[in-house]
Structure formats: structure tokens, C-alpha cells
Design brief:
Helices cover 17% and strands 46% of the residues. The chain is of the alpha+beta class. The chain has a 30-stranded mixed sheet that branches.
């Protein structure tokens, strides 16, 4: 017999032996025997009914077909799988031990329900450790059950449905095309996991997660990625009191690291596109937000640290760092905020209404003596920036003014949409210190650079000092302090500006109607009042200007109108000084002095901050050729003109800032040049003429008759 023949015979014998072995294995691992091994321990482990349509032996282990897991008495299953493969651990088989190496689910479907009481349908499985479960003894002649703790659990093309019945109406979320793998159950190494799939929350997004879990150390190290997550369906979960996320899309890439349920650190980035925040019934303008972060916290030491937070809101970029400590006793916050460039007006547009609109006023016909002025019926400001300006002193009537005008108590305003006052009790319980540094700050046409401020909050007392910035070619130095634990929240402030270029200042804060104002401004101001009554804050300012020039404002044009001179439409002064007081919605001007080569102005008066009403009394000194054009000065012109041919002209300005009225102050003229009253001429008695002889005789005869 040749070698080839012997080799073929040996190969045929091996094939027959393998075929006999396979037949024997299939005969031993029958459907009934496999179901008897698998079903009881699964039911004991899951505490639920388990149904399996078919079971057989495959190349790498056992195969279960048509798996269904149902809650007791439930008509629909909570878990189904078209196929489940149980792969043997080959290393254990070589040592004559029967162990599962892997558990593979193909097209599984899991339904997780959150009931109205907040409990989850699989909450008992999460709270119960697998290691505490013992395999149940078998019946039907089988001595022991198959061990169901595999080394690896994986799924392909899975689907997870989450039904939340705690919401009204209930919401359903779907995770589709889920692929996952969890390994390390049976070994001493940390358990590793990974998964990915699609998330359906309106539009289709995706997720990816991977990491490790060390049960002995209670440590987790994980990475999470979310892409194109629609926030519309997640709104109820992303709300706080009256604030919620109305619309938007989210992308997240973050890493998490925790140990012993005590320490947690996370780092990564998050982006929100077309984000809309809803406060009450008002939706704020759409925002695009990007943030990169690195945050760590330790519960035992009560320390939360933000080592890096880079935030971009609609293109406005800032960087923050800080730490929070002692949160169980009295929280203490340390922070720093920096930005290379910040446009304040764009951020203010994102703010909600700080105050609600006033209630409509009663019609004049229903209130005797009510004003017929319909200014109160004007529509509210069209932008949030305009409504924010309403917090400045003097936009809404003060309560005492309403009482004086209508003899009625004013109706209270409604609750604000954003109740910022609710945060005050929290701030009283927090201590904080921090720094704010802005390289450039923009507000419309106003530009400031090197803005720096130190913030302190301790026991309800807050302080912003020092506050410094370079603005309009000069320097600003100020401070703000107040008390949050005192009724009314009193505040005090001071501000000093030096060498400010008026051109830039005017363009930023006096828009449109003012053109051509220039000069060099230095001013020191102090103010005090109450946060709850911002419109009546009182202040005092001492102002000095040099090389000043004014023009292009109705008030200036009206002041020089009586002189009918083109060269006076732009007023130039080498020195201007004044003292300004504000309070109860009125700015009072005292000791105004304006020195120029051809014009000198002195005066005092007031300007209404609410209605712009003007009441100014000025005394001008200018060449006689200008004053001679004022007809009202005719009788007094020579008396008002000095040896240098300069004439004093008293003017009175009234009306409003936009529509002023100007006239000669005749009362001042009459008091200054009062004429003495003419003297009374005494009436002289007519002279007594002597009596002639005939008259004397008649008088004597008459007297004799009277005596008789």
C-alpha cells in the first residue's frame, strides 16, 4: 500500500470521526436540552418571563432564535432579538470547563419605560449587581445550569426605544442602528465598553461612546460624542423654572473621568447652532454658542475647579477660569474673565425683558382732570436694548409723580419675565472675588480698551473696585458698591473721566441729532440711591471742558437764532465748567461758565430726563453788532454794552431738547434796570387876598346879628 493510499485512508477516518463527533454533539445538544440550560437562569437573572422560539448548536457555541423577554403579565416584550449567539470560551474548554466567551445579539430591540412616578422599567436590573445572582438549579434531569456571565456582550443593528410617561403628553425617543461591545465581565481587568448609533429626536443625529469601568475602584473613564442632536424634543429635560431651550442643534465631544463616586473631571467641547432660549412666553433671539471646557470636582473636599472655559456667543469670545469651594457651608467663588474683543450691544440684544411693560393707562374721559397727552399710549421699544434703556433714571414716571398728576395710587407693574430679583437671596449666601479684563469693548460706536474690574461679594456687600478703562482717548476710573442684605439694595458709585475726546463720546451716547461737538472733557461724578428705584438715583458731577466746540443741535441753534449770524452756529469756547445734579428724573445745571474769545455764557437751569423738558436761564456776553439785531434789547442796549463794545444778553430757553424755544429774559432786564417812581407834587393853597371896606362892613354886620 502506497503512502498516498494510507494518507487518504487516514483522512477519511478523520472525516468520519469528525462527522460522528458532530452528529453526537447535535444529538446531545438538542433544542430541549439547550432551552433547559438557558431559560431558567435567564428568568432568575432578569426576574422576567423568557421565551425562545428555537435553539441549536453552531460552530462556535449555541444559537438562540426568537428571544423575547416580558414583564410578568405584560402583553408586549421589553426585549426581543432575532438571534442570540453564545460563544464558548475556547481556553476554558481546553481546561475541561464550560464557560461563555461572548454573548452576541443580532437585531435586538429594547423598550425602556419611565412611569408617571419617575421609576424606570429596568430600574431593578440596574440596581441589582450581576455578581450577586446565583445560577438556579435545573430540573428536567439537568444537574446544573449554564453559566451566563460572558466575557463579552455585543449587539449589532440594535434599536432602543425610550417612552417617558412622566411627561404630559408622553414622549418617545429612538436609538437606531446601535452597535455596542462590552468586555471584561469575567476577568480581573476593568470592563471596557464602546457603542455607536443614531438618535432620533426630531432629526437624525448620532452618538459614539467608549471607555472603561473599574468596579473595584468605582472608577469610570469614558469619551462621548454627540452629533446633530435636535434639542426640540429634549426641551422638557433642558428647562429650569420658566427657562427652557426652545430650539437648536447640539454637537458634543467630551471625556469623563471619575473615581470612587468622589472625584469627577471632564474636558471637551460643545456647540449649539440656532439655539433659542425661551423665558416664560418670550423666545430670545437665535444664538450660536461654542464652548471648550476643562472642569474637575471633588466631593470630599468640596472643590469644583474650572481650569479652562472658552466661550463664544454669536461671535463674542471670552475665557473664564475659577473655582467653587465650601459649597455645603458658605460657597466661595474665585474667578477670572477675559476677552480679546466684546461687543456689548450684541449681547444686550440677547437679554430678556428685565421689567414687564406697564399696564395701559385709563382713558382721559374716565378720569377727571387726566392729561390728554397720549404719550403714555406709545408702543414699547421695539428691541430689547431699548427696553433695557428704560431702566435708566427718568424713563417711566415715578410713583409720586403719578399720584400728583392723577390723585390715584399707580397700578403695580406685572411680574418681570426674567425675575432677576429672585437671585438676590442666593447672592447674599455666597462670597466671591474675581477679575474681569477686556482688551476691547464695543458699544455701537463707542470703543473702550484695557477694561479692568475687580469684583468682591461678601456677606451681602458687593464692590466693583477698581474699575478702569481707556475710552475716547482718555482714562476712566470708577467704583460701585452696595448692599444686597438691606431693604431697597442701596448703592453708591463714583466715576472720574480725564481727557476724554468729546467727538467720540458724543457719537456713542448722543446719537444722530448731535454733530460737530468736540473738546477735551474731564469730569468727576458721585451717585447714590436704590436698585429698586433706579429712576430716582441722585448724583452730582463736576465738569470741565477745554477747547470745546458745539453745533448741530436744536438747543444750540435756537440759542443763537435771535442774533441771525452764520458764524455763531458753531460756538467755540476755550474753557467750560459746570456743576450737574440729578434726582427725581431731573438734571439741574448750576454754575455754568463758558469762556470764548467772542462769546461768554453763564447760567443755570434744569433738563427733564423723562420728557426732555428744558428750563435754562443764560446770560451771554458777545459783541454789540450781534446783540443789536435783537429787537427786545432796544431800550436797554446802551445800558447793557460796556466800554469794549460787548453786550450782555439774558436768554431764557424752554420747551424740550428736540423742540426748544428761546426768548429774551425781560424779567431780568426789568429787575436790573428798574426806573425810580416819579415824586408826588404837593398842591399849593391859593393865597388869601385882603378884604376891602365894603366886604369888611358886610362881615361885621353879619357877626353882630349872630351874637344877638
Amino acid at each position: 500500500m502506497s503512502k498516498l493510499t494510507r494518507l487518504l485512508i487516514l483522512l477519511a477516518a478523520l472525516i468520519l470521526l469528525c462527522a460522528a463527533g458532530v452528529f453526537a454533539l447535535h444529538s446531545y445538544f438538542s433544542r430541549e436540552r439547550i432551552l433547559a440550560w438557558v431559560t431558567p437562569p435567564l428568568e432568575a437573572l432578569l426576574q422576567r418571563q423568557v421565551r425562545i422560539n428555537d435553539a441549536s448548536l453552531c460552530l462556535r457555541g449555541l444559537r438562540l432564535v426568537g428571544l423575547e423577554v416580558c414583564d410578568k403579565g405584560a402583553p408586549t416584550p421589553v426585549l426581543t432579538s432575532d438571534r442570540v449567539d453564545l460563544h464558548w470560551n475556547l481556553m476554558a474548554l481546553m481546561k475541561a470547563r464550560l464557560e461563555l466567551g461572548a454573548l452576541v445579539f443580532d437585531k435586538p430591540a429594547l423598550v425602556v419605560t419611565r412611569e408617571k412616578d419617575g421609576k424606570f422599567s429596568i430600574g431593578d436590573l440596574v440596581s441589582r449587581s450581576l455578581s450577586q445572582e446565583k445560577p438556579a438549579d435545573q430540573t428536567s434531569g439537568v444537574s446544573c445550569a449554564l453559566p451566563l456571565i460572558p466575557g463579552t456582550v455585543s449587539m449589532t443593528n440594535g434599536r432602543i426605544t425610550v417612552v417617558d410617561r412622566a411627561l404630559s403628553p408622553e414622549k418617545t425617543f429612538n436609538l437606531a442602528k446601535v452597535r455596542s461591545r462590552i468586555s471584561g465581565f469575567a476577568g480581573l481587568e476593568p470592563v471596557s465598553f464602546q457603542g455607536e448609533g443614531e438618535i432620533g429626536t426630531g432629526t437624525t443625529g448620532s452618538f459614539r461612546v467608549e471607555g472603561t469601568v473599574d468596579p473595584d475602584r468605582h472608577a469610570v473613564d469614558a469619551k462621548l460624542e454627540l452629533h446633530r442632536i435636535d434639542l426640540d424634543g429634549l426641551g422638557p429635560y433642558l428647562s429650569f423654572k420658566s427657562t427652557s431651550l426652545d430650539k437648536g442643534r447640539m454637537d458634543l465631544a467630551a471625556a469623563f473621568d471619575s473615581e470612587g463616586f468622589d472625584r469627577l473631571s471632564t474636558r471637551g467641547s460643545i456647540q449649539f447652532a440656532d439655539l433659542q432660549v425661551k423665558i416664560g412666553e418670550e423666545s430670545l433671539p437665535s444664538m450660536n454658542v461654542e464652548a471648550t471646557f476643562a472642569v474637575s470636582g471633588t466631593r470630599s473636599t468640596q472643590l469644583l475647579e474650572i481650569s479652562d472655559l472658552q466661550l463664544v456667543i454669536n461671535g463674542q469670545r471670552c475665557t473664564a477660569r475659577g473655582r467653587l469651594s465650601h459649597w455645603r457651608q458658605r460657597p466661595y467663588v474665585e474667578f477670572s474673565l477675559t476677552s480679546p474683543s466684546l461687543k456689548l450691544d450684541r449681547l444686550l440684544e440677547l437679554l430678556p425683558d428685565l421689567e414687564p411693560p406697564a399696564r395701559p393707562a385709563e382713558s382721559p374721559s374716565s378720569t377727571p382732570g387726566a392729561s390728554t397727552d397720549d404719550s403714555s399710549q406709545k408702543s414699547p421699544a421695539s428691541t430689547r436694548l431699548g427696553r433695557l434703556k428704560e431702566l435708566l433714571p427718568g424713563v417711566r414716571p415715578a410713583p409720586q409723580d403719578v399720584v400728583a398728576a392723577t390723585n390715584k395710587q399707580p397700578e403695580p407693574f406685572g411680574e418681570p419675565v426674567w425675575n432677576w430679583r429672585a437671585a438676590v437671596p442666593f447672592l447674599v449666601q455666597v462670597d466671591a472675588v474675581g477679575n474681569v479684563e477686556l482688551e476691547w469693548l464695543y458699544y455701537k460706536k463707542f470703543v473702550a480698551n484695557n477694561v479692568a474690574c475687580q469684583v468682591r461679594l461678601q456677606s451681602g456687600f458687593f464692590q466693583l473696585e477698581p474699575l478702569r478703562a481707556s475710552i475716547c482717548g482718555g482714562q476712566l476710573d470708577g467704583a460701585l458698591q452696595g448692599k444686597l442684605n438691606v431693604a431697597g439694595w442701596p448703592v453708591q458709585a463714583r466715576c472720574t473721566v480725564k481727557n476724554i475726546i468729546m467727538d467720540e463720546f458724543v457719537r456713542a451716547f448722543i446719537p444722530g441729532s448731535v454733530r460737530g461737538w468736540s473738546g477735551n472733557l474731564t469730569m468727576a461724578s458721585v451717585a447714590h440711591g436704590s436698585v429698586q428705584d433706579l429712576r430716582n438715583i441722585q448724583s452730582r458731577s463736576d465738569m470741565v471742558m477745554t477747547e470745546a466746540e458745539f453745533g448741530g443741535h436744536p438747543l444750540v441753534d435756537k440759542m443763537v437764532e435771535p442774533f441771525r449770524a452764520e458764524d455763531l452756529k458753531r460756538l467755540q469756547f476755550s474753557h467750560v465748567s459746570a456743576e450737574i445734579h440729578t434726582g427725581r428724573g431731573v438734571a439741574t445745571l448750576d454754575d455754568l461758565h463758558m469762556e470764548g474769545s467772542a462769546l461768554r455764557v453763564e447760567g443755570r437751569g434744569s433738563v427733564g430726563l423723562r420728557d426732555g423738558g428744558v428750563d435754562l436761564r443764560l446770560l451771554l456776553r458777545l459783541p454789540v453788532q450781534y446783540a443789536g439785531k435783537v429787537a427786545a434789547l432796544g431800550p436797554y442796549l446802551s445800558k447793557l454794552t460796556d466800554k469794549e463794545d460787548f453786550t450782555q444778553v439774558p436768554l431764557q430757553l424752554s420747551g424740550t431738547l428736540e423742540k426748544p424755544e428761546c426768548r429774551v429774559n425781560e424779567q431780568w432786564l426789568k429787575q436790573r434796570f428798574r426806573e425810580p417812581a416819579p415824586k408826588k407834587v404837593q398842591e399849593q393853597e391859593p393865597p388869601i387876598l385882603p378884604l376891602n371896606d365894603n366886604d369888611r362892613k358886610q362881615l361885621q354886620e353879619g357877626l353882630e346879628k349872630l351874637v344877638q
